[in-house]
Design a protein that fits this description.
The chain is an alpha+beta fold. The chain is built from 2 helices and 9 strands; from the N terminus they run H-E-E-H-E-E-E-E-E-E-E. Strand 1 and strand 2 form a beta hairpin. It is elongated and about 100 Å long.
């Protein structure tokens, strides 16, 4: 009995189909497992984007930063940068980020760190409504810390 080219091709295609099906099944099961793990993680963590604007044209982004649920805007900054801050009755006040210090020139002028969050309803950054250690982050939040000149 001799095997012709068509039979060999059919045998090769059958083996290829079995291997491809096995690989697809494995990847499907792995995807299901990872999806379950991600849903568990999703209940314990939030993913946020954190920007730092240094006031001299330098900007740094830390996109997709994973933080524990209940983390604050201050927690986000401390996670990605060296930060100095003061605690007062109103909350935390950031005085330095990565060595860039607050600079008070006079009672009516200076440079300080301000924080903003992206408001999707307005489509823009809005100033933080509370002290940064009081604002609890939600999944998908965008927080920007900016070193800014102010003058009264």
């Amino acid at each position: 009995m001799s095997i012709n080219k068509n039979q060999i091709l059919l045998l090769v295609l059958l083996i290829w189909a079995l291997i491809a099906t096995s690989i697809a099944s494995y990847l499907y099961l792995e995807n299901q497992s990872l999806s379950r793990e991600l849903s568990v993680i999703g209940n314990k963590y939030v993913r946020v984007n954190i920007g730092i604007v240094y006031g001299n044209g330098t900007r740094t982004w830390y996109n997709g930063t994973l933080l524990p649920r209940g983390a604050t805007a201050l927690t986000a900054l401390v996670t990605v940068a060296r930060v100095e801050y003061k605690l007062g009755s109103w909350g935390a006040y950031v005085t330095s980020v990565n060595g860039v210090q607050e600079n008070i020139i006079s009672k009516s002028e200076g440079y300080s760190w301000m924080w903003y969050r992206y408001d999707p309803n307005k489509g823009e950054l809005v100033p933080g409504e509370v002290a940064s250690d009081k604002y609890k982050l939600a999944d998908g939040d965008v927080i920007v810390w900016s070193y800014e000149h102010w003058k009264f």
